[in-house]
Write a structure and sequence with these properties.
mainly alpha, elongated
């Protein structure tokens, strides 16, 4: 069909442990979302636990959830095959996707 099925091997240039800063960027939104879930779960008992109304506790949980979404989406390197904080791995994945798209478009033109 004109589309090459060969695939560029995926390799890491240097495998190293991510820094604390990258870990917080990568998983910070998830951790904040867990706080929002915890507030939602304890909302019915919020008056006796925290001294605030159930409604106020739920609203705080919703605000925290909306804050966690952009934090999660701004993680440093997004690779759909796996979570990564390695810039080279994410760039290689983007190159692979661009090559696949080019091969697909070339295959359509030949028909």
């Amino acid at each position: 069909f004109g589309i090459s099925t060969t695939k560029t091997p995926f390799t890491y240039s240097v495998h190293k442990m991510p820094s604390i800063k990258n870990i917080l960027h990568q998983y910070g939104g998830f951790l904040v979302a867990l706080v929002a879930i915890a507030l939602t779960v304890v909302a019915p008992r919020s008056e006796e636990l925290f001294g605030i109304s159930t409604t106020k506790c739920l609203l705080i949980g919703i605000v925290i959830a909306f804050v966690s979404l952009p934090i999660h989406e701004m993680r440093p390197y997004q690779d759909k095959r796996q979570m990564t904080t390695e810039k080279a791995a994410a760039e290689q994945h983007m190159k692979d996707l661009a090559e696949q798209e080019k091969q697909f478009k070339d295959g359509k033109k030949k028909k």
